[in-house]
Amino acid sequence: MNIITWLVLMLVVLFGTTANLSLKYGLYISSPTKGASASIQNLLLSRYFWIWFVCYTFMTILWLYVLRTIPLSQAFPVLGLMYALIPIASHYFLKEQVIFSQWVGISIIITGVVLVVN
User: Fold this and answer.
1) Could you tell me which residues come within 8 angstroms of residue 15 by beta carbon, excluding any fewer than 6 positions away?
2) Tell me: the pLDDT tens digits for 8-40?
3) pTM to 2 decimals?
4) What Pfam families does the annotation carry (predicted)?
5) How far apart are CA 113 and CA 77, in angstroms?
6) Cα–Cα distances in angstroms (integers) from residue 26 to residues 58, 68, 76, 110, in the given order
């Protein structure tokens, strides 16, 4: 395994994080009252929906490459980083509140991924 393969795996994590944030934001801004349920038409016309779609497409293609080159026992736990990055990104970009226990959980996830990969 080389560094390029691990960088591709990190791209999978970043595309997944971006996709989830984009879909959440697209649902939020496409709703008529900024919080009510969004209409499908408004969502499909939202650029954030298309960012989600493109990110998930690239994420899937790159994940297929990763599965061919990195042992699943190492690659799959790294995807858990999305469980840590999504709340962090939501906090900074979507202004969502992250409470102390979530920060503790995020640090445990990151520690666990580091232990599994080494």
Assistant:
1) 55, 56, 58, 59, 62
2) 999 999 999 999 999 998 887 766 665 555 577
3) 0.85
4) EamA
5) 6
6) 19, 33, 28, 28
3-state secondary structure the chain: CCHHHHHHHHHHHHHHHHHHHHHHHHHHHCCCCCCCCCCHHHHHHCHHHHHHHHHHHHHHHHHHHHHHHCCHHHHHHHHCHHHHHHHHHHHHHCCCCCCHHHHHHHHHHHHHHHHHHC
Phi then psi for residue 46, to 5 deg, are -75, 135
- Phi then psi dihedrals of residue 73, to 5 deg: -65, -20
One-letter amino acid for residue 108 of the chain: I
| Maximum C-alpha span of the chain | 49
For the stretch 88-101, pLDDT in tens is 999 999 899 999 99
Q: Assess whether pLDDT exceeds 80 at residue 105.
A: yes
